[in-house]
From TrEMBL:
It comes from Lusitaniella coriacea LEGE 07157. InterPro entries: FhaB/CdiA-like_TPS, Pectin_lyas_fold, Pectin_lyase_fold/virulence. This is S-layer family protein. Residues 882-902 are annotated as: Disordered. Residues 882-900 have a biased composition (Polar residues). SMART domains: Haemagg_act (SM00912). NCBIfam families: adhes_NPXG. Gene3D superfamilies: Single-stranded right-handed beta-helix, Pectin lyase-like. It comes from the Bacteria. Pfam families: TPS (PF05860). Residues 56-167 form the Filamentous haemagglutinin FhaB/tRNA nuclease CdiA-like TPS domain.
Length: 939
């Protein structure tokens, strides 16, 4: 179906006819073929409508048989001001019967009560003169049959309340019928008792306004149709008004205000729409639909509708209660098909439960360009199918459930803008199994924004939250904001058309929206993604993530989708033309970031546009570890690359596989760990320039093939700058700025300690260009050294396959300290203390025997100290700083001489000095007394 305002002529005709009827209030609004009302009735019979004689002026019922059925003409009653009061002991209108309130034109309200204690059956017609409002009050209950009809000019209120409340505080009671009517006032509310009866509506009667249209109970435009009572059941029944108001309230022990805020109703009851029930307030301007209840359910193709077809703005739908539940065949809509803006859909319940029919059903239609909003069958909608703006969808709940392809949509189809979606789930939201929340745009209008806020938000098994403009759209995509204590985005099912997650993708000329996440804990796993991508010529959106803890891991079970956070552009637009859009920036602020098992944080470009900048600030740690296996080959286009046999490393990266430049990658953290084949870096696989990798950390740990890289094929080489207190490389780890057909990139390292073990290398090599520059400033370097080529050792190289004359430049500045200076080799044999202690000695008085070092003690108690035995103090090292510069071949550097003090030796003689004192000396000379050999002590 093609939409145009020409399709709205029927609505204008209905409105005009309705206005003509209201303009002549003296004429009963019958619209009944063949029904003739006269002042004389051919036959009077005993009917189902009986007055109770409780009013000063009693209600009179005259019943007559006519060719079209039974007519009950209701006259008399008590008039107070513009209010006409009727009181019945029974009020039943059976099939082919008509209850006609023959009021005068000056009556504003016809207030009718039923006092007999029996419920009322309405399966015929209720009529009144002029524009009078009609109140039908029966505390025992009311049932509207399939043929129940209304033909009144005013509003209709059917209620099982005990009484009608007036502005001056007086009331008209159905349970205390003898209450006097002393004042003149207007009704303002309905007072519900402790156990009000139920109201059931099964009416599917034809319209008396629009021929051949099933409307059930219907009132004219601008009027109100209300069912107020205990449990409300619409068992296939319809409620209709063209742009008017429909109110459904199920409660007890409270007052329902006719024109006020009813959010204070405490004791709520249930409202059930089943078997294709429809509540419809659509019109030139969508009307107002209000529901107040405890358990509110729509099942078996039931609908709440308040669509706009003309140039008036819609008023929308409001639902308040404890729980709202929609099954997989029912929906709620506040869309616009005209120039007027759609009304909003507002839901305030403790629980919202939406069930879908088929996972990914609408998602696949959007991808195939077969989406038809007229075929929507389940969910919440506020679409723009004209030039008017779509309405807002607001959900305020404690717990939100969406399952099995359930939908919440505010898509703009033509020129109008899409509405915003706001979801507040104070406890948790569980969005599961291919469900969809979209504020997209297909035409020239902008998409709406999407806000999801809650305690715990779980986006599971392929569920998508998206503000994606279609390829044909020129409107801007909306922004996404997700705020939660815990945000878990988990899983993409096998053969899913798209991954699950949060997306601000643009497919054409429309600029993508931005995406922000704020959470204490963010989990993205099993192929789920957070993505701001551009597949066209428009700018990609920015991503901003703030969290205490971020955990990214794994891929989908079928290997089609990696988990992670991505900002990217595609090689081709949807139309197949080369794209030139820039990707948005990606910023992460966290305490801890962990990326493992093939997950990635990535900014990438696949076209002539540049990739965005990737910045991660993690106050405690960044950990990148492991890889994924069994990856689908197409994943390479958006990942750090398949490294063989379907293996993709875990990575934090900026990547270009086209002519566009890769963005810079900046990491700032206390501790950076890259291990088990994971990579952190910038990369260019085509002719695009690689960006720069900058890391500021207290410590950097590369273990078991952990890599920091800035590599490129044909584009300008990337650079690496590292600032850290210590850098430790183990087991084939690498720091590399290698290049293919261009010069290698540069490496700058500033650290206190650099340690390399197990064939770990620092390289700035090139294949068909010059080697890069390696500048290292460190207090100490252990294990690594400059070499002209790679070896199984720990190498620092800047070579070129073109030859030594194309080698790069290596400059290493260290404090020239020999770490082995002053060390002495210890004996390998274990000391046997029995050989060191004289057997004649005994232990007493807590005695002990200790050996420190090698000097100062003979090899056994019977031996004397050899002359060469010395005691040597530890010396303080002298230090000197001298740069070492390497070009094609390493240059030697001299080691500063160690300052050596005279050795202290053991005295072996003694002498008497000029003062007569005895001195111990180490060398024998004339006049000295030679010390004798020690003999075993006698102790």
């Amino acid at each position: 179906m093609k939409f145009s305002l020409a399709n709205l002529n029927w609505a204008k005709l209905i409105t005009n006819r309705s206005r003509r009827a209201i303009a002549n209030p003296k004429t009963p609004i019958l619209f009944l073929s063949g029904l003739l009302l006269t002042s004389a009735f051919p036959q009077v019979v005993s009917g189902q409508i009986l007055g109770d004689n409780t009013l000063p002026n009693s209600t009179l019922v005259n019943t007559a048989i006519t060719p079209t059925g039974t007519l009950h003409q209701i006259q008399g009653g008590t008039t107070v001001g513009s209010n006409l009061f009727h009181s019945f002991s029974q009020f039943n209108v059976l099939l082919n019967e008509t209850a006609y309130f023959n009021n005068i034109a000056t009556i504003s309200n016809i207030i009718t009560r039923v006092t007999g204690g029996q419920l009322s059956h309405i399966n015929g017609r209720i009529l009144a003169n002029g524009a009078a409002n009609l109140f039908l009050i029966n505390p025992s209950g009311i049932i509207f049959g399939e043929n129940a009809q209304l033909a009144i000019g005013g509003s209709f209120f059917a209620s099982t309340a005990d009484s009608v409340v007036f502005a001056d505080g007086s009331f008209y009671s159905a349970t205390i019928p003898n209450t006097p009517l002393l004042t003149v006032s207007v009704p303002v509310g309905l007072q519900l008792g402790a156990n009000p009866g139920s109201i059931i509506n099964r009416s599917r009667a034809s319209s008396l306004i629009v021929p051949n249209r099933l409307v059930g109970l219907e009132v004219l435009p601008s009027q109100t149709l209300a069912l107020i009572g205990g449990d409300l059941q619409l068992e296939g029944g319809y409620l209709t008004t063209l742009g008017g108001t429909i109110q459904l309230a199920s409660a007890a022990n409270g007052q329902f205000k006719l024109n006020g805020d009813n959010s204070g109703l405490q004791t709520l009851r249930n409202i059930n729409l089943s078997n294709g029930a429809i509540v419809d307030a659509s019109g030139l301007g969508g009307g107002s639909v209000q529901l107040f209840g405890e358990q509110i359910s729509l099942t078996q193709r039931s609908r709440l509708i308040s669509d706009t077809f003309g140039n008036f703005d819609g008023r929308g739908i409001e639902i308040q209660g404890t729980q709202l539940q929609l099954d997989n065949t029912s929906y709620i809509s506040t869309s616009t098909f005209g120039t007027g803006n759609a009304g909003s859909l507002r839901i305030h319940t403790d629980v919202v439960d939406l069930q879908g029919k088929t996972p990914f059903e609408v998602t696949q239609q959007l991808l195939d360009f077969t989406f038809n909003p007229l075929n929507l069958s389940n969910g919440l909608y506020s679409l723009s199918l004209g030039s008017g703006a779509g309405g807002q969808i607001e959900i305020d709940t404690k717990r939100l459930f969406m399952n099995n392809g359930a939908n919440i949509l505010t898509t703009a189809i033509f020129d109008g803008s899409g509405g915003n979606i706001t979801i507040e789930a104070s406890e948790f939201a569980e969005l599961d199994n291919g469900s969809l929340i979209v504020t997209g745009t297909v035409g020239s209008g902008n998409a709406g924004n999407l806000l999801v806020r809650g305690g715990q938000i779980r986006v599971l098994n392929g569920t998508s939250l998206s503000t994606t403009p279609a390829a044909s759209s020129s409107g801007k995509g909306g922004d996404i904001r997700a705020i939660a204590d815990t945000l878990e985005i988990n899983g993409t099912p096998d053969n899913a058309p798209v991954p699950g997650g949060l997306f601000t993708t643009t497919l054409g000329l429309a600029e993508a929206g931005n995406l922000s996440v704020s959470a204490n804990r963010l989990i993205v796993t099993n192929g789920a993604q957070i993505s701001a991508a551009s597949s066209g010529a428009a700018q990609g959106g920015a991503i901003d993530v703030t969290a205490e803890s971020i955990e990214l891991s794994g891929l989908s079970h079928d290997g089609q989708f990696l988990s992670g956070i991505f900002s990217s552009t595609s090689l081709l637009t949807v139309s197949g033309q080369p794209g030139n859009a820039n990707a948005g920036n990606l910023t992460v602020n966290a305490t801890r970031v962990r990326v493992k098992d093939g997950a990635q944080i990535s900014v990438a470009t696949g076209n002539a546009g540049a990739a965005g900048t990737l910045k991660i600030n993690a106050t405690e740690s960044i950990e990148v570890s492991g890889f994924a296996t069994g990856v689908d080959p197409k994943v390479e286009a958006v990942s750090f690359g398949i490294i063989g046999d379907g293996i993709v490393p875990s990575a934090i990266e900026s990547n270009t596989n086209s002519s566009g430049a890769a963005g810079d990658l900046n990491l700032q953290t206390k501790r950076l760990s890259v291990s088990n084949g994971a990579e952190v870096g910038v990369r260019g696989t085509s002719n695009g320039a690689a960006g720069d990798l900058v890391v500021q950390a207290n410590s950097i740990r590369l273990n078991n093939r952990g890599t920091l890289s800035a590599t490129t094929n044909s584009g300008t080489g990337g650079n690496i700058r590292l600032q850290a207190s210590d850098i430790v490389m183990r087991d084939n780890s690498r720091i590399a700025t290698d290049a293919g057909n261009v010069d290698g990139g540069n490496i700058e390292i500033e650290t206190e300690v650099l340690v390399a073990q197990g064939n770990s290398d620092i390289t700035a090599n090139a294949k068909q260009g010059r080697g890069g520059r390696v500048l290292i400033s460190a207090r100490t370097i252990l294990g690594a050294r400059f070499r002209e080529y790679l070896t199984p050792e720990n190498d620092i190289t800047a070579t070129s396959e073109l030859g030594a004359e194309f080698s790069g430049f290596v400059d290493i500045q260290t404090l020239n300290v020999n770490p082995t200076a002053g060390l002495r080799e210890l004996p390998t044999d274990t000391i046997d203390p029995s050989n060191r202690i004289a057997s004649g000695c005994t232990t007493y008085a807590q005695s002990r025997f200790s050996i420190t070092g090698r000097g100062g003690l003979p090899q056994n108690p019977t031996a004397s100290l050899p002359g060469q035995t010395v005691w040597r103090d530890m010396q303080s090292f002298s230090t000197a700083t001298k740069p070492r510069t390497f070009a094609a071949t390493p240059q030697s550097s001299s080691t500063p001489q160690e300052s050596i003090s005279p050795d202290l030796v053991e005295a072996n003689s003694w002498t008497i000095n000029e003062k007569g004192n005895v001195e111990l000396v180490a060398h024998h000379s004339p006049g000295m007394v030679q010390g004798s050999r020690f003999s075993p002590p006698k102790c």
